[in-house]
């Protein structure tokens, strides 16, 4: 995420939508302030593209009605009139609609970069207020490692995430997807080329 453009009066989501449509680049709304999303590294982009491909392919092959989207607007439940965050990947099982934001997301993915880690972690706190969100995955863009947060059956979030390494599996419960974490890095310099895939097919 890049630098914010300060506004005197906090923007609402509706105001932001109109404003952002006239601006160059990509923006998100954080507590009523527009925040520019600076260009990510190529490694970040490879991980995002790979994750989107694996998840969407699984959804299509399994015949699951859920859908995925890259950088969709999501509206936190806290201070919702003034926030529109943009995760790297989101999954929803809500029916198709013409709503601007991603409705009822169940899974959100964020990719951590050295230049935006604090902004990204702030987003995670916001995502945790969305009632429909069941899982949040953070993956690093400098090493094969991640953090999984999973909402408990009682609706609460754990005090600490589950820390993941290259041989650990990630799963998206809502769509029955599972693969080794290293699969998200398969197109990057961070892993050795492999002819094998650990992706679980439907």
UniProtKB/TrEMBL annotation:
Source organism, top-level taxon: Bacteria
Residues covered by the Putative restriction endonuclease domain: 13-180
Alphabetical list of CDD domains matching this protein: DUF820-like
Pfam families: Uma2
InterPro entries on file: Nuclease_put_TT1808, Restrct_endonuc-II-like, Uma2
Matches recorded under PANTHER family: GLR1098 PROTEIN (PTHR36558), RESTRICTION ENDONUCLEASE DOMAIN-CONTAINING PROTEIN-RELATED (PTHR36558:SF1)
Protein name: Putative restriction endonuclease domain-containing protein
């Amino acid at each position: 995420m890049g630098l914010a453009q300060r506004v005197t009066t906090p923007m609402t989501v509706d105001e932001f939508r109109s404003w952002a449509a006239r601006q160059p680049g990509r923006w998100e709304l954080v507590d009523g302030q527009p925040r520019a999303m600076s260009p990510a590294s190529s490694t970040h982009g490879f991980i995002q593209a790979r994750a989107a491909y694996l998840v969407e392919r699984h959804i299509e092959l399994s015949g699951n009605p859920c859908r995925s989207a890259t950088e969709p607007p999501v509206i936190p439940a806290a201070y919702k009139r003034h926030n529109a965050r943009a995760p790297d990947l989101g999954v929803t099982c809500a029916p198709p609609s013409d709503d601007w934001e991603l409705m009822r997301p169940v899974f959100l993915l964020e990719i951590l970069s050295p230049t935006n880690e604090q902004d990204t972690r702030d987003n995670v706190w916001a995502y945790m207020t969305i009632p429909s969100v069941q899982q949040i995955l953070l993956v690093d863009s400098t090493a094969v490692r991640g953090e999984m947060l999973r909402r408990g059956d009682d609706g609460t979030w754990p005090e600490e995430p589950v820390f993941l390494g290259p041989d650990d599996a990630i799963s998206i419960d809502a769509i029955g997807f599972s693969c080794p974490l290293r699969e998200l890095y398969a197109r990057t310099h961070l892993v050795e080329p492999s002819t094998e895939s650990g992706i679980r097919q439907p």
